Amino acid sequence: MSDLRKYYSVLFKRYLVMRRHRKELRISVDKTKKIRSSDILLVMCLRNELTRLPFFCDYYRKLGVNHFLIVDNDSTDGLTDWANEQPDISVWHTKASYKASKFGMEWCNYLLTRYGMGHLCVTVDPDEFLVYPKMETRSLRDLGDFMKMEKREALQCVMLDAYSDKPLQETIYRSGQNPFEVCPFFDKDGYIQTVNYNGGMFTQGGPRMRVHNAKHPQKSPALNKTPVVWWGQNFRYTSSMHDLMPARLVRPDGVQPAITGALFHFKFFASLTEKAAEEMARKQHYAGGQEYRTYLDADNPVLYEPGISVRYENPEQLISLALISRGNWL
């Protein structure tokens, strides 16, 4: 088979996968007619995360997101009623298997392909908050324009797990709160970066390696993500936002220093215990939810560690710690 025939064969198989998972989605809140060609879109998949959404959506609106496209994997917390009251949120409901959809990615890929072509798209989980250089004075639109000027289609990010200096069960988040105030700390160093199978970077570290996988650090989860993309033809996420195809989107180009960002990850609230027990029972996550088992086994830990934990201040702090880079964006 020629290379061209192989290429079209792969595309056709991807189309069939997308068509199958597209049929699993039913739109329940439709405001997509409001989407303009210049809008910045945010895509995510969730289940019972309404508590997080008021602050989350306001945070991204302030950065410049114009419309939110949400896949609701059978939530029972009133998401649809809340979304109906919002001017910029569309929701697709599904009861289908999160695991079978490659942990929600095939649903997100469909929305990105259907609505995101040619748009700057942010794809994150509801507990992830994007931080990038100069964000205090420069919007996502400014960032996207700079990426275009440098012919960069994607922004690489390191995921930084945020936590408090209290035991997990005392770290309580309430709807509308700023999570950066509830969990203000992160690990300033101790990260390991290697080359992935596709030429991109594979990153591990933080408290999930230091505490939850101390005996088996190689099993700690990936912290490399590519959440900001000028979405184009045949783009697709293959493993959460950790892996993106075509591979050029995650490979260093070696031509000039790249701008990079961070995703602050607010998983470590007291509600994690209940969430972990539910997901262990559902077995819809990677490796049957084994990561959630490590949280249940940790027995209410304090993740704060003097000398390693620091309070988040601003993007310049992350640049000084060499966790993100401004590249040529001066």
Terminal CA distance reads 48 Å
Order of helices and strands: HEEHEHEHEEHEHEEEHEEEEHHEH
* Percentage of β-strand residues: 15-25%
Categorize the overall geometry.
globular
**What average pLDDT do the residues reach?**
90
> What structural category characterises the helix and strand content?
alpha/beta
Specify the biggest β-sheet. Answer: 9 strands, mixed
Strand order across the largest sheet: 1-4-3-2-5-11-7-14-6
Please estimate the helix content. 25-40%
Helix count from the secondary structure assignment = 10
Number of strands: 15
Based on CA atoms alone, the radius of gyration comes out at 19 Å
Low-confidence stretches: none
Feature tags:
Glycosyltransferase family 2 protein, nine-stranded mixed β-sheet, globular, two-stranded antiparallel sheet, 330 residues, EC 2.4.-.-, transferase, glycosyltransferase, 21% strand
Protein architecture, described:
This protein has 330 residues and is α/β, with parallel strands linked by helices. It has helices at residues 3-22, 53-63, 79-84, 105-115, 140-149, 179-182, 207-210, 272-282, 290-297, 315-320; strands spanning 26-29, 41-46, 67-72, 89-93, 120-123, 128-131, 154-161, 185-187, 192-195, 201-204, 224-230, 236-239, 243-245, 261-265, 309-311. Strand 2 (41-46), helix 2 and strand 3 (67-72) form a beta-alpha-beta unit. It is an enzyme of class 2 (transferase).
